[in-house]
Amino acid sequence: MRGAPAAASVATTRPLCFEAGVFRAVLVGMGGLFGSLARYWLAGTVQACTESGLPFGTLTVNVVGSFIVGLVMVLSLERGLLNAEMRLLLAVGVCGGFTTMSTFSYETVALLRDGEVMLALGNVGVTIVVCFVAVWFGALIGRLL
User: Fold this and answer.
1) pTM, full prediction
2) Among residues 15, 77, 88, 98, which one has the fewest Cβ atoms lying within 10 Å of its Cβ?
């Protein structure tokens, strides 16, 4: 009659996919930490240097992040210059922490609440157009490298 496997052997036989998942989660977390700190610094600096009701700090981080996502995705998926882990670190982690749809949305609603309808519409229009152009430009640069 065979007994149950020893506890030590069960604990040491985790599937490789578990370890890969943990490693990837750590990459995303590290990238998110860096991206969040970079967003805090850059958005605050840009906003402090502008004298406008338009949230240029948030716009700046969203445009820069869009460019980086376009660049990273092309360098990884089309050029093969970045592996999947580096793509995860940069596109999901860093850019996920760096760019911010929630702040963009809140600032736009705050402009509407304050009766600044034209600024709110301008914020939406400029953000969408410029971020799309930034992704396209980042992808273009990635293809040229």
Assistant:
1) 0.78
2) 15
